[in-house]
Amino acid sequence: MQNYELLVERIAKSSGLEKDEVERKVEAKKAKLSGLISKEGAAQIIAAELGINFEDQELKVSELMAGMRKVNIVGKIINLFPVREFSKNGREGKVANFVLADETGSTRCVLWDMNHIALIENEEIKLGDVVEIRSASTRDSEIHVSGFSEFKKSGTVMEEVKSTPSASEVTLEEIKQGQNIKARGVVCQVFQPRFYNVCTECNKKVVKGEDDVFKCAEHGIVTPKKKAILNFVIDDGTEAVRTVMFSEQIKALIPEEDLQDEVKAAAFRDDLIGTEIYLIGRVNRNQLFNNLEIVANNVEKINVEELIESLNKTDSQ
Ligand SMILES: [Zn+2]
C-alpha cells in the first residue's frame, strides 16, 4: 500500500492534480479494466497517460521497476559482499555487490566501474554508509551502476531503514509454500528432461489407451506431440532447491525439440550447470517428495559480458 500512496503523491506533484483526483482516475481505470489490475498497476497507467516520467527524479527503493534508465536514489549500505573478479573471453573485470536500503525497502545494487569499485576496496565507502547514486539503471529490481553513473557518499542521515526486499527477492532458505519469489543463484544440477504427450489441438495431456491409440477427451483419437519437463536445482548459498520448468520457460532457453535430441540435450545441460540465473517462480509443495520446490515462471541467465555492454549502450545514448 505504501508504494501505491507514494505513487499517487508523485503523480499529483508532477501533474498538478489533487491527490483525490488522481485516486479517482486510478479507481476509474481499475474499474474499466474489470479489476484485473492492481491499484499500483492502474496508477502506473495513469502516470503514463499523463506523460509523467519518473526517470530523473529521486526515487525510493519500492518505486524501482525493471528497465529504468536514469535512476537517482539515496540509501544505506546494509550488506556488502566481497568484490569479485571475473575473467571472460580474455577480458578481466571486477564487480561489486551490496544491498541498498531506504525506509521503503531494500534492493541489490551492482557496481561495474573500477573507480566506484575502488571506493569500496579502499574502504572510503563502507558497510553502514549512506550513498548517493545518480543515472543508474535497473534490471528487474536491481540497481546497476555503470561508468556513466555517479556513486558517492551522501551527507544524508538515515537511521531507520527497511531491510526487507521490496520485490519479493528472497534467499532460498526463506521460501514458503504459495509464495511468488525472485531468487538469484547458480544451477548446480540438471536432470534428464522428461516428456509427456499432448493433443495437438488443445495442448492437453493425452494418454495411450488399451487399444494403443492416444485419445483426447475433446478431440478423440489424435497423433500427439511431445512436451518437455525439465528439473534442475538452484543454489544461492543458503539452500539448494529443486525447480520445475515447463514448455514456455524451456523454449526461452532452447528450442523444445532439441531436448529430444540426445546430443543437443546433453550439451544444453552441460551449459546450464554452473550458470548464474535469475529465477522467478512460485513455491509449491511436491506431494511425492513432501518438500518445497519452485515452479519457474521465468528463468534468465545472467550474462556478465552482455550486462556490461547493454549498460554502456543505454547510458551513452
Ligand atoms: Zn484436444
- Total strands: 17
**CATH fold-type name of the largest domain:** OB fold (Dihydrolipoamide Acetyltransferase, E2P)
What class do helices, strands and sheet pairing give? alpha+beta
* Element pattern in H and E: HHHEEEEEHEEEEEEEEEEHHEEH
CATH homolog superfamily of the largest domain:
Nucleic acid-binding proteins
Spell out which ligands are present.
zinc ion
Low confidence ranges: none
Mean pLDDT: 85
- The end-to-end span amounts to 35 Å
How many strands, which pairing sense, and closed or not: the largest β-sheet? 5 strands, mixed, barrel
CATH architecture of the largest domain: Beta Barrel
Number of domains: 3
Q: Percent of residues in helical segments?
A: 10-25%
Task: Name its key features.
single chain; about 325 residues; alpha+beta; OB fold (Dihydrolipoamide Acetyltransferase, E2P); 3 domains; five-stranded mixed β-barrel; five-stranded mixed beta barrel; 17 strands; globular; binds zinc ion
